[in-house]
Amino acid sequence: MFVRNITTMSGFLLMGFSDNRELQILHAMLFLVTYLLGAAGNFIIITITTLDPQLQAPMYYFLKHLSLLDLSSLSVTVPQYIDNSLEGSGYISYTQCMLQVFFFTAFAWGEVAILTVMSYDRYVAICLPLHYEVIMSPRTCRLAVTIAWLSSSIPGTLYIATIYSIRFCRAKIVHQFFCDVPQLLKLSCSNDYLRVIGVTIFTSAVVFACFIGIVLSYVHIFSTIFRMPSGEGRSKVFSTCLPHLLVVSLFLSTGFCAYLNPTSDSPTAVDFLLSIFYTVLSPTLNPVIYSLRNETLKSGVRKLRLSTKFTG
User: H helices within the chain, ranges in order?
Assistant: First the structure.
């Protein structure tokens, strides 16, 4: 591991997963492959939902922005870790660390917002089909996405403003592969961190409210599905909801588990695994999850792969 005076350095030391040089290189290669797969998958979703006339419904419009957020989120943490691992250095400057905090929290907030809007879209499509085109008009969809993106700067700005006031007097060792807010708070030597805790409580309350909105949407959705007389109809409708439900479950469950667990100076393998799930695997797997049972998406991917023109 890269060595310097960690008590006086201006930046932080990201411990990552191992001090062994061979393992660091192996981890870098694994993260690089995962990043390339995730970037390719999300880029394909963005491309086909932009170009294919059959993928212009609100559901795919929201999916495109979810993929944009996933691609952006992956790019915040993974390249930095790959670079550090290849160099054998865990050092990250103070500015780079603050930028990671800002963009990671911003994109996570945006993803929660988009997933909430997507659940509402499915609720309207299944429970209020006759009013769908009126409620989910192009103007409404654009407004919802704009609010999601603009509001994503709120948590990032609040975290940066409060973390800047923290005095770090302990050894600046972050037991994580990126600048994780709970780990940064452990380095504080005073009650300065209480303001960051306040921001965390605020963002958690908003995320919980979004979670409740998603749950209520699916309560109505499942109630409607189970009242359908046709088994084939129930199966078809359920298949449109399953990918979103899997994505929400994967992202929120791993995120909640990671942040509700007390931070430790010696994180376990489970702690690292949870962090990998919500920072790396979730945005990488989302395009796969959405494409598995969606014939329209798979058709769009085949068109792109065969380099044919998108036609109506």
Answer: 21-51, 58-87, 94-127, 132-135, 138-151, 153-163, 181-185, 193-226, 231-260, 269-276, 282-292, 295-305
- Report the domain count for the chain: 1
Q: Would you say residue 5 lies in a domain?
A: no
CA dist list (Å): 114 to 60, 151, 211, 274, 276:
12, 11, 12, 22, 21
Distance CA 106, CA 98 (A): 12
**pLDDT, tens digit, for every residue of 201-255?**
898 899 999 999 999 999 999 888 888 777 676 777 777 788 888 888 888 887 7
- Per-residue DSSP letter, 277: I
Phi, psi of 171 (to 5 degrees): -55, 130
- Name the one residue in this structure whose structure tokens are 């109809």: 233
Task: Provide the percentage of residues in the chain whose pLDDT is more than 90.
Answer: 38
Q: Is residue 141 part of a domain?
A: yes
Domain that holds residue 199: 12-305
Length of the chain equals 312
Q: What is the CATH number of the domain that holds 86?
A: 1.20.1070.10
In a domain, 39, yes or no: yes
Taking the C-alpha atoms of residue 173 and residue 187, their distance in angstroms, rounded to an integer, is 8
Does residue 87 form part of some domain? yes
d(CA 283, CA 110): 13
Task: Answer whether 176's CB lies under 8 Å from 146's CB.
Answer: no
pTM: 0.88
pLDDT of residue 163: 86
